Amino acid sequence: MNVFRLAGDVSHLVAIIILLLKIWRSRSCAGISGKSQVLFAIVFTTRYLDLFTIFISPYNTIMKVVFLALSYATVYLIYVRFKNTFNSENDSFRLEFLLVPVIGLSFLENYAFTPLEILWTFSIFLESVAIMPQLFMITKTGEAESITTHYLFFLGLYRALYIANWVWRYHTEGFFDQIAVVSGVVQTIFYIDFFYLYVTKVLRGRGKMTLPMPV
Q: What is the protein's membrane topology class (predicted)?
């Protein structure tokens, strides 16, 4: 494992912990897209179906369990524990616009036409677009709390670091995973505009990130 992969995993973990702490401490999931969190839970579930059949390393197994547990804990807090604070009206992105093409693409573009491989491919493609309901929600409301933007920043940083990881592995090992790389690049592109707003507004001390209103 190289430093980019490790830093990416840490950034991913930090993002999820930030989100959980935000919900727990404020006793509210306002501004959080439950749909994005459900998609991420589906991503981890379909990707880690090999948890009990394939052992790679203790680190790998522990991280799989942690991401699964935290993703479902987040969904529980949003839809059960603090459901009265969840704003479903603003979380209105239609998931079928993501799920249908992702499912179709998973059957067409994969490394082996087997259930586990198709589900793994599905998880990779779905992760690249799972954040869209959250970004759509921010666009719809026109602003986001700083703690929510911190979560999105570390989530985007995780993907950027994974791109560095793939570049490193290609140059040192000759390894290239076309599906993962293309999906990761697509996901990172979604964050580019957000990164600009994050640096220019949130890091300069504003309590919330307000999107510019169209002229």
A: Multi-pass membrane protein
